[in-house]
Amino acid sequence: AVCVSGGEPTLQPDLADLLAQIKAMGYLVKLDTNGSRPEVLKELVSQNLVDYVAMDIKNGPSHYAATCGLPKVDLAAIEESAAFLMSSSVESEFRTTVVAELHNETTMESMGKWLSSLVPGKKPAKLFLQGYIDRDSVLQAGLHACSREQMENFVHILKPFVDAVEIRGMD
Question: What pLDDT, on the 0 to 100 scale, is given for residue 15?
Answer without folding.
Answer: 97
